Amino acid sequence: MKKLKYERAKMLKRKFFQQNHGQLLQQFVSQSAGIAERMIMTLEELEKATHCFDNDLIVGGGGHGIVYKGILSNQHIVAIKKPKNVVRMEINEFINEKDQNHCLGRTGCG
After folding, report:
1. Residue 60: CB partners within 8 Å, gap ≥ 6?
2. Where does this protein hold ATP (predicted)?
3. How many CB atoms sit inside 10 A of residue 50's CB?
4. Is 81 annotated to bind ligand?
5. Beta strands of the chain (E only): which ranges?
6. Are the C-beta atoms of residues 58 and 66 closer than 8 Å to each other?
7. Which residues are CB-contacts of 61 (< 8 A; sequence separation ≥ 6)?
8. Residue of 69, 87, 86 lying closest to 77 (CA atoms)
9. Domains of the chain listed by start with CATH number
10. What's the whole-number mean pLDDT along residues 61-69?
């Protein structure tokens, strides 16, 4: 029974990863190492870094999400963008924000 739950959770994780353009993010990360350390993190890791997206850690925001100051377990300080609920057409706009000059990198996929 536990194995079945584990396999189902693994399948859902893979489905959501593909559905939310995780492959595009992985491609971007592998091609763009250098300016900043980049990594893909779980929601739990992002919540820990931002103290559950504490409002006191908000450093900015825009049409597609809110940017939080986060501190990773290795003590690196990072900017973490939490997307707002968006429709599928807006996802590509959110992804394309990485190309703006003021963005050093993207941390997380959620």
Report:
1. 66, 67
2. 82
3. 21
4. no
5. 58-61, 65-71, 77-83
6. yes
7. 67
8. 69
9. 2-99 (3.30.200)
10. 84
